[in-house]
Write a structure and sequence with these properties.
alpha/beta; two-stranded parallel sheet
Length: 124
């Protein structure tokens, strides 16, 4: 079960106003891919980009979960287990922000290798 605090934090973030412009990379990403990685400098718009995609209306907000791995609710949590639970509960879109802060990410845990790989999109 996804903790209530994670769902509440996600709902709060997804309800916040976003800039009216679209990030330039938005039209270059194939959002039909199963896994998309976006890397770039701090403040380059990665979070804005994923939130704009989430809010464009193709997926109901109740089926979207946004998690920031630097949020205290994620301390010690496994991203793979979170993703598995989310999809088992009917979730459609999992947005993971600050993934480098996730438990075991730097050690290259196997969850990362379970999805087909593509070159990450870069923010300039």
């Amino acid at each position: 079960m996804i903790p209530d605090i994670s769902r509440q934090a996600s709902a709060f973030i997804l309800s916040q106003p976003l800039p009216p412009y679209r990030r330039f990379l938005h039209d270059r990403i194939d959002f039909n891919e199963r896994l998309i990685g976006i890397k770039g400098a701090r403040g380059s718009g990665k979070t804005t980009l994923i939130l704009q995609y989430a809010r464009q209306g193709t997926i109901p907000l109740e089926k979207i979960l946004y998690v920031a791995c630097d949020h205290p609710a994620m301390a010690g949590r496994s991203i793979y287990e979170l993703a598995q639970t989310f999809y088992q509960e009917g979730g459609k879109l999992l947005l993971i922000d600050e993934v480098h802060k996730a438990k075991g990410f730097a050690r290259g845990q196997p969850w990362w290798r379970r999805w087909p790989t593509r070159r990450p999109a870069r923010m300039s």
